[in-house]
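If your schedule permits, I should be very grateful for your opinion on a structural question. I have a record of one protein: its chain in single-letter code and its fold written as discrete structure tokens. Would you kindly read the sequence against the tokens and tell me how you understand this chain to fold? Thank you for your consideration; the sequence and its tokens are set out here.


***
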Amino acid sequence: ACQNISQKDFQLADFQSEKLPPLEAVVDVNNLESVFSAGGYYGTSYNNGTLYNDNSSWVQTTSISGAYVKDSRIQNTVTLFNDFVKEAKKNGFKIKADLILNHVSEEHEWFQAFLKGDISKKDYFIVKDEMPEFTKYVDEKIGTIVEYKEKSGKISKRRLIFPEITDNHYRKVTLNGKDYYFYHTFYPFQLDVNWENLEVLYYWLDTINYWTNIGIDIFRFDAIPYLSKEEGTNAENLPKTHAIIKLISNYIQMTAPRTVIQAEACQYPNDILPYFGKERKFKTTINNEEKVIK
């Protein structure tokens, strides 16, 4: 069974609880991320959510963020979603949702406030006053690379995830005649947040509180390896990123112990292992040689 939900009209009739029992196999829910003001996808066509009713009895909903508090459309959506969750639980489902911690949409209240003149909101993002000098090249193993020469003299070597969309990792924004350069790991409308700002942490903890209270059983942490953007690094799998994840994991264990987390960590095996919560070793054979990967 397949049902589409209109992004334009924000019609979520398919989330009404009376529609739950007939769910079989897969229900494709399109454009829900725009309705839920997803961290990076608000108002775009880059969104999909899939609900499953299989032997594991869990439901993947959509990407979510904390913007529900500011948008009446989100409020109406959440009312329907609450009803859906209640009926899903009655029918033995567990609810799984993306949580995007790396970036927010250009539609987010922080960025919109900056555009309206609240300069303090730039502290919620990774922002430079001048565009760093950079060189770009293609590495045969890892793709397009951009190397930035920082003011400190350090070289930040970063993968460009979507070279067909953007030339580098910075979006230029001019406000009152002054240029600002906002960092983005992915698309220019997905602005990376500044995890050095404690208000960012408090915001996401509040967001987690909200959705666990509604009934989310599993958070899939989207784009999790990129949280820390220390100069002179590739901004992937850094110690500060793991520290943030551990902090959030401990917080969830204390406040919502029935909720678990999964990490979307598209990395090499030795870089993925720490996301399981501790260092592990395993043996494998590469080119007929046995190797131990930590």
User: Anything to note?
Assistant: DSSP finds six helices and 16 strands in the chain.
